[in-house]
């Protein structure tokens, strides 16, 4: 039986998942959350997208870690992600339209990168962007070695004393609590959030939606009743139906 999902190496950057054949295919870069590049969740999400006709590239941007430790998101260079996005566009199997999809810290990453590329008028900005469980502001650094479960003494979702992101060598405009200026992006934008999210409040996505509306933007927004930070089986199925439909329409 021929494979329905094929792995292809994007030289110097990592593996991709896509349909068999020569393409070209609409492509999506997938950005993981604080679970890190080693956890496999972004590869699993990429395989789901590949099963629906996209060439998906799970980009591992976290530093350090291994199969048992997530590593950290500290001083992560967003311009390196822009370089990886450019490499994906140049991949022979990729068509003219490329999307960006991130979950949690990956959603923050996706919105930040897009807003900075738009601000600086950089070529190669994604043709469509999706963010699940995003924040509306820049968050602090994350190190899995010091992470505690919610409710434990010393719990915090991120470290206020560390910077998560850099852009062109500095983090001055990316300090924690700085609003993410995604309203700079004029392309199709998909936002989603579980209403019962106990890690990152759904109010963050609501504030994003309101701010985008004030700037004349009309994002596609979905709130999942009864769902936590990561949706359960039924919620995830619904999320993927909506997400895939969004990318099929815009890529």
UniProtKB/TrEMBL annotation:
InterPro entries: AB_hydrolase_fold. The keyword Hydrolase applies. GO terms for molecular function: hydrolase activity. Keywords: Hydrolase. Gene3D superfamilies: alpha/beta hydrolase. This is Alpha/beta hydrolase. It comes from Billgrantia desiderata. The lineage of its organism: Bacteria, Pseudomonadati, Pseudomonadota, Gammaproteobacteria, Oceanospirillales.
């Amino acid at each position: 039986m021929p494979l329905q999902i094929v792995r292809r190496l994007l030289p110097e950057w990592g593996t991709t998942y896509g349909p068999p054949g020569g393409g070209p295919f609409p492509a999506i870069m997938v950005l993981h959350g604080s679970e890190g590049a080693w956890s496999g969740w972004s590869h699993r999400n990429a395989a789901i997208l590949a099963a629906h006709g996209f060439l998906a590239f799970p980009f591992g941007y976290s530093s350090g870690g291994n199969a048992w430790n997530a590593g950290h998101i500290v001083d992560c260079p967003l311009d390196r992600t822009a370089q990886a996005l450019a490499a994906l566009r140049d991949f022979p199997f990729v068509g003219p339209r490329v999307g960006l999809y991130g979950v949690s810290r990956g959603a923050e990453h996706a919105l930040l990168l897009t807003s900075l590329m738009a601000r600086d008028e950089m070529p190669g900005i994604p043709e469509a962007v999706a963010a699940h469980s995003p924040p509306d502001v820049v968050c602090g650094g994350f190190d899995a070695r010091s992470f505690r479960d919610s409710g434990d003494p010393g719990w915090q979702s991120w470290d206020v004393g560390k910077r998560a992101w850099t852009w062109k060598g500095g983090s001055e405009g990316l300090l924690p609590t700085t609003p993410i200026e995604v309203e700079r992006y004029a392309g199709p934008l998909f936002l989603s959030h579980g209403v019962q999210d106990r890690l990152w409040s759904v109010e963050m996505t609501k504030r994003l939606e309101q701010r985008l509306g004030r700037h004349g933007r009309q994002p596609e927004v979905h709130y999942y009743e009864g769902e936590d930070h990561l949706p359960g089986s039924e919620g995830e199925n619904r999320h993927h139906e909506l997400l895939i439909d969004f990318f099929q329409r815009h890529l």
